[in-house]
Amino acid sequence: MSNELDAKAARERAKAIAEQRRAERRNRKRKCVVCGVEESDKTPLGAHPDGIGPSCKDELTCQARRAAASR
Ligand SMILES: [Zn+2]
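# zinc ion complex -> structure
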């Protein structure tokens, strides 16, 4: 019955790989190109109007953060 075991092992392996990819995607955080803040529930990112990358949806907070960071 080694075939059955192999199939089970392959399934387990595929599951582990899928799990790992999910975790990596969770960990890979996008950063705002304007102020450099990491994307989170509090600071959702959207596409920058100039197409230069992800930037804060909340533009006012973003600009305040950038002003504070450049000081
Ligand atoms: Zn920002």
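# post-check
The pocket of zinc ion is lined by residues 32, 34-35, 37, 55-56, 62, 65 (CB under 6 Å).
The chain has two helices and two strands.
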